[in-house]
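User: Design a sequence. Structure:
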């Protein structure tokens, strides 16, 4: 399966996310790129247009945006909202992107939905955890 992931955000959040994915070598498994919006020197609209021109019918593409219904999400949806081989996921977070980037097979709707639910459950207030660290743990 020919897959790729696109990360889109207000500012450079998406570039930081991409940098972290590189720590886990997930950028070696498939193309992953970042498109920052509202960033000096970056023409995000041109990059979206180039992305649209480069996607082929045999590719499966996940596009992550940072804020649901935000301006970046709206621009991505205007460009790709009706594409059958492009799935837009909003509310991007590192555990979700890591999980989906690490999957070898194609992304089904059921798989994506399950990973989103798992990522939502992983967001917790750490104050509710009790744990003890010893000097040996540090």
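Assistant: Done.
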């Amino acid at each position: 399966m020919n897959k790729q992931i696109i990360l889109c955000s207000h500012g450079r959040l998406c570039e930081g996310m991409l940098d972290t994915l590189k720590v886990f070598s997930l950028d070696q498994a498939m193309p992953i790129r970042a498109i920052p919006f509202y960033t000096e020197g970056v023409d995000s609209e041109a990059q979206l247009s180039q992305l649209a021109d480069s996607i082929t019918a045999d590719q499966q593409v996940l596009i992550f945006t940072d804020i649901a219904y935000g301006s970046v999400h709206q621009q991505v949806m205007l460009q790709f909202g009706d594409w059958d081989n492009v799935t837009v996921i909003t509310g991007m977070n590192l555990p979700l992107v890591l999980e989906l980037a690490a999957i070898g097979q194609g992304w089904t709707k059921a798989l994506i939905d399950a990973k989103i639910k798992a990522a939502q459950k992983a967001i917790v207030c750490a104050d509710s955890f009790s744990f003890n660290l010893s000097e040996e743990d540090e």
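The CA atoms of residues 39 and 73 lie 16 Å apart. The first helix runs from residue 13 to 23.
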